[in-house]
Amino acid sequence: MLTLEFWNVLCTIINLVLLYILLKKFLFGPVISVLEKRKALLEGQFASASEMRKTAMELKKQYETSIHTVEAESAQILQKAREDGETEYRRIVGEASEKADRMVAQAQAAIVEEKEKALKEMESDIASLAVDVAKKILEDDKGGWF
To answer: Residue 49 domain-assigned?
Structure first.
């Protein structure tokens, strides 16, 4: 049967304590140290990732603000271009209308001038015909009257 001896139990306890001390110093210490370093590294990476995320969010906000600013500026530019185009259109139409009015006035003046010229020519022709007719009448009458 099994008997417990004091010295056996004492040696076993001493062996276990020594084993525990050796394992703690040579195995658990380095393993725990590696785990602590790994934990610190992971915490650093998480902190870095968190900081990067914050930076990315700030950049995103800046980007969105820039987009809104650019959209507003482009809307203003388009509105100004429309207004400038409308102004230019009105100016061109006004100039064309003035030019057309001047051309009509010049054409009317030319018509009046041509009409007066034609009337003068007709008066001249009529006067010339009247003189010719009077000469013929006088010639015809000369032979008979005198």
So the answer is: yes
Residue 107 lies in a domain: no
Find the domain containing 51 and state its range.
13-100
pLDDT per 10-residue tile (average), the chain, 146 residues: 78 94 86 92 94 95 94 94 94 94 94 93 90 85 58
Sign (positive or negative) of CA dihedral 73, 77, 80, 86: negative
The predicted model scores a pTM of: 0.44
- Going 127 to 128 to 129 to 130, the CA torsion angle's sign is positive
Residue 94 lies inside a defined structural domain of this protein: yes
Using alpha carbons only, give the angle 26, 27, 28 rounded to the nearest 5 degrees.
115
